[in-house]
Design brief:
The structure holds two protein chains of two kinds.
Chain A lengths: L10
Chain B lengths: L2 H24 L7 H14 L10 H23 L16 H14 L6 H15 L2 H9 L5 H27 L6 H13 L1 H12 L9
Helix pairs in contact in B: 1-3, 1-7, 2-3, 2-5, 4-5, 5-8, 7-8
The chains are: A little secondary structure, B mainly alpha.
């Protein structure tokens, strides 16, 4: 996808 | 953060505590795979590189540092502690690192969201975490009389993965842009690896007998 992946999980 | 994610993280943290308790209190790492522990250390180091450039929350940062520090501590005990290292089942813990690391690295280079150094390493860590438990599962199949702390350690790790899946389902329905197929597929694979273990774990628990995995 075009949206930046947010790595907010551990 | 939802309750499932928090419960998953706590289960993960507790698993590490149980393992450290076993090693420190019994001065033994019998039944624990050093290969799995070193793979986890590699998982944490490659995934949590973002500690240096991306801030999510104090909770996230503390947990990341904790997981890296405890992984290093466990490895130090197993490799260098005079008493503990003698209890390591080296001859049984024969899984090859390359069999897991190489395919994960190739897959991360091919299948990723963005082809950047940090993103490929992050993706590699997701794939590697999915299979890092394999040396531990193989070792447990070979070991007769798996002690309770080891069994509980693996059960807590499995619970952590299962709770993360519930967390993803919850986020899928509550966050409109939450689509992480790469993480989900890896996570489901990882959790599936525990299915066999949990079958025998609950059976042993029900009959109040020692856990033993059939070879």
């Amino acid at each position: 996808g075009g949206k930046k992946e947010e790595h907010d999980e551990l | 953060m939802n309750l499932f994610r928090l419960a998953g993280d706590m289960s993960h943290l507790l698993s590490v505590c149980v393992l450290l308790l076993k090693i420190r209190a019994t001065k033994s790492c019998r039944g624990i795979s050093l290969k799995t522990q070193e793979l986890y250390a590699l998982v944490f180091v490659t995934r949590y590189l973002d500690l240096f450039y991306s801030y999510i929350s104090l909770y996230n940062s503390i947990m990341k540092v904790t997981f890296i520090a405890t992984a290093v501590s466990i490895i130090r005990y197993m490799r260098f502690d005079k008493v503990v290292k003698q209890t390591y089942d080296k001859e049984q813990d024969t899984f090859r690192y390359a069999f897991l690391v190489a395919p994960c690295l190739v897959l991360a280079l091919v299948l990723n969201h963005r082809f950047t150094f940090t993103e490929v390493l992050w993706t590699f860590s997701i794939y590697l975490e999915a299979v890092a438990i394999l040396p531990q599962l193989v070792l447990m199949q070979r070991t007769q009389n798996i002690d309770n702390l080891t069994a509980n350690y693996v059960a807590l790790l499995g619970a952590y993965r299962g709770l993360y899946i519930v967390n993803w389902i919850y986020r899928y329905f509550t966050e409109p842009h939450y689509r992480q197929w790469l993480v989900w597929i890896s996570g489901v694979v990882q959790t599936a690896l525990y299915a066999d273990f949990f079958y025998f774990y609950t059976k042993a628990w029900k009959h109040n007998t020692r856990l033993q995995l059939p070879a």
